[in-house]
Protein 1
Amino acid sequence: MFGFPGGQIAAFCVTFAVGVAGYFLFRFLRFPSPAILGSMVATGILNAAGFYPSFNISLVSFFCNILVGVMIGQKIDRSVIAHMARMVKPVLIQTAGIFVLSLTCGLSMYLTGSADLKTSLISGTAGGIAEMIIFGMSIDADISVVAFVQVFRVVVFLALIPYQAIIAEKIAGILRMSRAQPSREKKAFLKFFMKRDYLMMIPMAFAGGALALWLEIPTGALLGSMLACGGIALLIGKQYKFDNKLSFIAQIGIGLVTGAKITPQIFEKLGTLLVPAIVVTLVMLVGCFLMALLLYKMSEWNLATCLLCVSPAGLSQIVTLAESVGADPLVASVFHTVRIVGIVTFYPWLVLPFI
């Protein structure tokens, strides 16, 4: 159907239109995070039904991550270095907590379901969907089970994050612990990018993302573009503007990419995996909520930021939700970067003795 020249573009446009339709439906129904969730569910149904058009999904993911990286890079200024220095201890404690929670979730799934131990341990971890599927393939785990549980967890967390933020703030208010998001140091005379500065920054954003991907850094496109744009802004002593419409496009694209992972095999496993997937997600929800409260007591950030720091969804998905729930996307991106790098690097070594 899309074999003619330009068919890849046509296929993407059709899929993107389906994602936009999902967004409008979810917004009409007042669902949380409608751009990501609506596009993900709509394109996921399309994929599960066997009608997902063929196009280069990795290229779409790359562009969306570049956009999100540019968005976060806008937050980087000269006060960030001191801000980051205060994050070392809570980041390390949270990462250790995620490791323990991942093992707990994996064992919970093994005890409540029929999957073998290695598949359960990989399915229960708070890692990226793609990274855990690759790890599962390397040790001959049941990939369809891993994909189902990982996608189920991400969908639930994305849907509940806005509600968790509201509940957490109410609890903080009752306990008289509520605090506003601390504002960073303001410059007396803020200078903004000129046209020539944007002409320099845009290719650098893509170059930074491509270099990080080539170096096989987890979520490299996002991190590379973020550091490139933030570095340029620091170097020339100016701040750039980011159109919120670009954030909307990125959210639709991220939902589209996630929807491509919702395959018919996932629905075939629904009957046997729904209960253990719910158990794993509930354990993860409770554990992450408790870690968010601990992080809140240790830090200067508000509860919304602390919740996003520990929520085990994708980095690009989390940071695009940050502004809408009153959280700091830069802080969340640091926490999730360390989590993803730590899981990808060290979690396999923790799992292998159990297999």
Note: Residues 76-242+265-354 form one domain.
Protein 2
Amino acid sequence: MAKTILVADDEPRIVQLVDSMLSRAGYRVVSAANGREALERVAEAKPDLILLDILMPEIDGTVVAQTLREQEDTSAIPVVFLTSLVDGTEVEREGPEIGGHLFLAKPFKFEELLSVIKHALG
């Protein structure tokens, strides 16, 4: 069975692009346009991984991630932040894991995204 990935980003073109790429790679993709929707989709879809923008309306990505960590049934879901708040150089210098979370700097290449997803899913 295909792994389910939630893509939460307030930029529709990012969501469409990531959805298209991951669907072609064999993943099932669920999307959300803001933090509140992301929490709703997690409850509905029980994703295996979450790709989460940090700066989003209603509830930002850091609050979404913290909320998920505090709930027993969602605490083990890997979260990868897709963000322009860190750049590729910072991720390379600090490593892909910063503060206990995986980061992928925007813009990113599809190969980088797949690599981070495979790493996060173990």
Note: The CA atoms of residues 53 and 63 lie 11 Å apart.
